[in-house]
Write a structure and sequence with these properties.
Strand 5 and strand 6 form a beta hairpin. The chain has a single domain, classed as Luciferase-like domain (TIM Barrel), CATH 3.20.20. It is an alpha/beta fold. The radius of gyration is 20 Å and the shape is globular. Helix 1 packs parallel to helix 15 and helix 9 packs across helix 13. Strands 1-2-3-4-7-8-9-11 form an eight-stranded parallel β-barrel, surrounded by seven helices. Strands 5-6 form a two-stranded antiparallel ribbon.
């Protein structure tokens, strides 16, 4: 399992925005020295203190000039056309591939309700436009003259340049949170970028199995090859001792992230929409891999994490220590001394995860403490990444 870094450029509290960008550069240089596999940068808009990463392509371009080994992942480009036209996605990623010396990993995603509303994206179009983008981008990279005729895009005999430095092209990924999206990623032959936040190890394992089964059935990948990889991001904070990790504010950071993420992603509406999709699938017979997955969950009791999240969605002020205790108990958070973090990292490696994207700059944790955490986790990398 490769150990990566995942970054939102979060800005709670009074720190100047300039400080947060400089902090990201410092973290990337350190991660490059320590042998982290990839730096993954998100794309969010209108996110306030949750994420300053509204122009990730610029951040990644800057990082390409500050680092030499670490790969640079866009996790993920918001694919509906009102965010990013597929031509621009292909052009920017190929340019970054040249600037970085061939280190790009490219993810695409549909985004969510608040960002759709902000950019005027029709929810009914988001999935289809994302699917077209997945079809278009790798073909733009690998053909001299590109044409496409689809539901949302018409392109006739155009030279899309530059082509990527990597041949045949950079690895493709899909950010996914639902069983449906995990299956989509597998059937497209692209890697899947998931989240362990609020998820039990058992459910993570079943999501991986769902993806692997779908990828095994992929005979016509959208790209030139099947990128059969599973990446997951989770909250990581390492200190010299378990007690020091807690004194550094790990519990407060976990609670802050939970509440802020739920508010930004309009979780109540998204949760309702997800439940409706589940009902629709089951009402039509629950066929296919996702249908089988959802049927297996019908009789499962809600996890402690799901119960806590439900209370937060309903407006309850859940104490931050309780949020942290519940999430930490089910391995969702990797927090503590190097030995504690080693054991939790091993649990994920044993599930067959290819890349663990460690979110370390989060909430109110101080800049020095984040750098210490990156260094301590970096010292564990040789135990997991033997490539």
């Amino acid at each position: 399992m490769k150990i990566d870094l995942f970054n939102e450029i979060q800005n709670p509290g009074p720190a100047p925005e300039q400080f947060r960008f400089r902090q990201a550069l410092d973290q990337a240089r350190l991660a490059d020295e320590l042998g982290y596999g990839c730096w993954w940068q998100v794309e969010h808009h209108g996110a306030g203190e949750f994420s300053l990463s509204s122009a990730p392509e610029l951040v990644l371009a800057a990082l390409s000039q500050q680092t030499s080994r670490i790969r640079l992942g866009h996790a993920a480009v918001l694919a509906p056309g009102r965010f990013n036209h597929p031509i621009r996605v292909a052009e920017r990623a190929a340019t970054l591939d040249h600037l970085s010396g061939g280190r790009v990993e490219l993810g695409l995603t549909r985004s969510t309700i608040p960002e759709w509303n902000l950019f005027g994206v029709e929810p009914a179009d988001a999935r289809a436009q994302t699917a077209e983008a997945f079809e278009m981008v790798p073909k733009m990279w690998t053909t001299d003259r590109f044409s496409h005729s689809g539901e949302h895009y018409e392109v006739s005999d155009v030279s899309i340049i530059p082509k990527p430095l990597q041949t045949p092209h950079p690895p493709l990924w899909q950010a996914a949170a639902s069983p449906t999206s995990f299956e989509e990623a597998g059937r497209r032959g692209v890697g899947v970028l998931g989240t362990t936040i609020w998820e039990s190890l058992d459910r993570v394992a079943r999501m991986i199995d769902l993806y692997r089964a779908a990828a095994a059935q992929c005979t016509s990948p959208v790209g030139s090859f099947v990128n059969d990889q599973v990446a997951y991001f989770t909250f990581v904070h390492c200190a010299e001792t378990d007690e020091q990790a807690m004194r550094n504010g790990a519990a407060a950071a976990a609670a802050w992230y939970t509440v802020t993420a739920l508010r930004f992603f309009n979780a109540a509406a998204e949760f309702a929409a997800t439940m409706q999709r589940h009902q629709d699938i089951l009402a039509t017979g629950g066929n296919g891999l996702t249908g089988e997955f959802l049927r297996a969950e019908l009789d499962a009791a809600p996890t402690e994490a799901q119960l806590v999240i439900g209370r937060i969605i309903q407006g309850e002020d859940v104490p931050e220590d309780e949020v942290f205790e519940v999430l930490s108990a089910q391995q969702s958070l990797i927090v503590g001394s190097p030995d504690t973090c080693r054991k939790k990292l091993r649990a994920y490696a044993d599930l067959g995860i290819d890349r663990l994207m460690c979110l370390q700059q989060i909430g109110p944790i101080g800049a020095d403490e984040v750098m210490t955490s990156i260094r301590l986790i970096g010292e564990l990398i040789p135990e997991f990444d033997r490539s």
